[in-house]
Design a protein that fits this description.
By secondary structure, the chain is an alpha+beta fold. It has 19 helices and 21 strands. Strands 12, 13, 14, 15, 16, 17, 18 and 19 form an 8-stranded mixed sheet that branches. The protein has a 4-stranded mixed sheet with strand order 2-11-10-9, covered by helices on one side. A hairpin with a 2-residue loop joins strand 7 and strand 8. The longest helix is centred in the last third of the chain and has 23 residues. The chain is globular.
Length: 606
């Protein structure tokens, strides 16, 4: 599987929830919750109405095995079920699974299924379908974006009609989030007869999810209808329209006119005031689960020198980045890459960047001098010890103005330290090519994941996204420990150690953790479920939304939703009073940032 495919896999993993959630010690029973506690039903609610959600382009496929973009995932997630789902408060609830347990060695997961699940064509869903899906994935997954997941699966076994056992080749701490919460279960009676499941477009998908596929009008919309026999209770939305809109500007205009019910792409900060006081409009802010950061190419001199990378940290003020680039809508970059509000994974003892590596051009100059990178001919620019001119190139992702701006700020810092620098803003295909081939000095980009195992992908010597080629044996050991232990406390301890090593080795320059702003309307539907890492269009929102025009009297003034409620932008500085630790959710969005941008770019190219 090539790296572009791996990137796609990350895009999927991140964008399924987009602003998803963190998979914490998901293995602990304390994180297992009843999904019915997250679906609100009241006597005054009536089914009906059409919800209109924008889609940033045509779906290339509705095949759950091979899709690569968030827009495809948005449709697929409504039609197909997973075994479990991460809740808005970052716990795990069964979607198809009534219950589950894991063996002591962490290799065998046993799921008990709801016994009242049927496919949209009326046939019963059983353990045979689950085992078929996982064994199919183990067989062909290497040819799909799910190769990393497929490689973990040894086999799946039917225990009885509603019990299935999944055996892994090795323990995997992120199993519930990355596997059970991601892999859509397929109907065996349809898919076992296909000639090639990888090339199958699945243009009329048959799933078991809360919505049934109705029709696709090319370049216009995808229409789904409520699954009135859904085992978790029918959605109150009668019809769900995914309306194709090719760009965020069109989306904003349509939202302003009341033609769609939500904006599923972060709106420009300049537009926040426009919607802040608009009637029947809510704003929702969610933090990216990853970061805006810079890859150093550790395969090249002088980026392979820790002192050089440390000098780069002294050349940029991350607090200034937050204000100048993100208008205050970001958190300063953490030295440990994991956003500081992503608890319990973030290391609370990690010092802020400005304390350990404060902005100081003079300090950077001394470090460069120490490396022998000095101005030897008096022209104002530094040369190497052999007299060659020191010149570095920074590539940045042209699709995100904030990434470009941060690269400009770093370039300015380098010039002030006497380092000649070229900054080139390039489109995503060129950028990915340079990352994959190693043809770069530094690359400004954004990305991450709500599941902290992303540190394996980015920073382990064998990580699929370790584009910087940095390799540190002591860091690898800690990353492997967090990946393969199923003891949550041990994993947290290992992850904190990983972050300490990242702050020491500095394989990337972490600049900021962005906050996204979404908006949605309440004049047609209410009951939106959002969270610090959840955007408005998610499984829980679709299961809870009800038409305000069909509300029976008396009006709903005495009941409270059991799911997290939306907060206005003005109140986002404080977590909702639900008892939920939203700090966990926020982390997920950060990693998603780069991934989101890449996904948008890729889907636009389709």
């Amino acid at each position: 599987m090539n790296r572009l495919a791996i990137v796609s896999a990350l895009i999927i993993a991140s964008l399924c929830l987009m602003v998803s959630a963190q998979a914490s010690g998901l293995e602990q029973d304390s994180l297992k919750v009843d999904i019915h506690g997250y679906i609100r039903r009241e006597p005054w609610m009536s089914p009906g109405g059409t919800l209109r959600i924008p889609l940033l382009g045509e779906a290339g496929t509705l095949n759950p095995l091979v899709y690569t973009t968030s827009l495809e995932g948005a449709i697929i997630d409504c039609i197909y079920d997973t075994l479990v789902v991460m809740t808005p408060d970052l716990r795990f609830a069964g979607r198809l699974a009534r219950d589950w347990e894991v063996s002591q060695d962490g290799r065998t997961w046993t799921f008990s299924l709801f016994s009242n699940v049927s496919w949209h064509d009326g046939k019963q869903l059983t353990a045979e379908d689950v085992a078929f899906t996982y064994n199919l994935l183990a067989k062909v997954g290497g040819m799909t974006p799910w190769a990393g997941v497929a490689a973990l699966i040894d086999r799946a076994e039917v225990v009885d009609d509603y019990t299935v056992r999944i055996v892994l080749k090795e323990p995997f701490a992120a199993f519930l989030y990355k596997v059970a919460g991601t892999i859509r279960i397929l109907p065996k009676h349809i898919w076992e007869g296909l000639d090639n499941v990888v090339t199958y477009k699945n243009e009329r998908p048959v799933g078991s999810g809360p919505f049934v596929f109705v029709e696709h009008e090319p370049q216009r919309y995808y229409k789904l209808s409520a699954n009135v026999k859904y085992h978790l209770g029918r959605p109150l939305i009668d019809e769900l329209l995914f309306i194709v809109m090719s760009d965020p500007d069109s989306m904003l205009l349509a939202f302003s006119k009341g033609e769609i019910d939500a904006v599923t792409w972060s709106i420009p900060y300049a537009s926040v005031d426009k919607f802040k006081d608009a009637p029947n409009v809510k704003l929702h802010k969610a933090t990216e689960a990853g970061a805006h950061f810079v890859f150093f190419n550790c395969g090249k001199y002088p980026m392979n020198e820790t002192l050089f990378r440390r000098a780069m940290y002294h050349l940029i003020n991350v607090s200034e980045v937050v204000e100048a680039v993100f208008s205050g809508n970001a958190l300063p970059g953490s030295l440990g890459f994991i956003p500081p509000n992503m608890k319990p994974w973030s290391n609370p003892d990690l010092p802020p960047k400005e304390k350990l590596y404060p902005y100081s051009v003079e300090t950077a100059k001394k470090l460069l001098d120490e490396l022998g990178l000095k101005d030897r001919n008096g022209d104002g620019w530094r040369e190497t010890a052999s007299g060659d001119k020191l010149e570095v190139t920074i590539y940045s992702f042209a699709g995100d103005p904030m990434v470009v701006r941060t690269a400009e700020m770093l370039s300015q810092g380098l010039r002030e330290a006497g380092v000649s620098v070229k900054h080139q803003s390039v489109e995503i295909t060129t950028l990915l090519s340079k990352l994959v081939t190693g043809d770069f000095d530094m690359v400004a980009i954004l990305g991450g994941d709500i599941e902290p195992d992303i540190v394996y992908d980015f920073f382990h010597s064998s990580g699929g996204f370790n584009f910087g080629r940095c390799s540190f044996p002591d860091l690898d050991a800690l990353i492997e420990k967090q990946r393969f232990t199923i003891d949550v406390d041990e994993r947290i301890s290992a992850l904190w150690g990983v972050q300490r090593k990242l702050a020491e080795h500095l394989p990337v320059l972490v600049l900021a953790h962005q906050e996204f702003v979404f908006t949605y309307r309440t004049d047609n539907f209410d009951g939106w479920v959002v969270g610090p890492f959840l955007r408005p269009d998610n499984f829980f929102a679709f299961m809870n939304l009800y038409s305000v025009k069909l509300v029976k009297t008396p009006t709903p003034t005495t009941t409270k939703p059991t799911t997290p409620t939306t907060t206005s932008v003005a109140s986002l500085t404080e977590p909702p009073k639900t008892g939920v630790d939203y700090s966990l959710v926020l982390v997920g969005v950060a990693v998603v940032a780069l991934v989101v941008v890449i996904a948008l770019y890729m889907l636009r190219r389709k």
